[in-house]
Amino acid sequence: MAKPAEADIPAGLRRVHRKLERWRSTHRSRSPLPEALWRAAADAAREHGVFRAGRVLHLEYGKLKQVMNAKMGKTPARTAFVELAPLAAMDGEDCVLELEGSRGKLRLRLRGRTAGDLAGLSRALWEVVS
Length: 130
Hints:
This protein is mainly alpha-helical. The protein is built from six helices and two strands; from the N terminus they run αααααββα.
């Protein structure tokens, strides 16, 4: 990947880049960056975009986005999908419970269970994952 030309880098991003390069020149490779540098990088990412800032500053996109969101008081977006049939209609019928997350999928088929059984199972599963 070609390095962006110095003239193509906005001044604010260039300042953070110089700070990072000075710090990197005095520390071993793979040393953790100080919080102050992460905060400066997060500010630059908020202003110029995470992808562009990460590329110019040579920082990992996911970590930079996480730091930027934390600085802004945001938590990472979590996608959730829940579809529940009306509880009265579930008594005595088959029920399929599908869970999907970052570590994979889980499909449970419950036969002849009541809504109370499903509620108890849901609470137990929720306690495990939360």
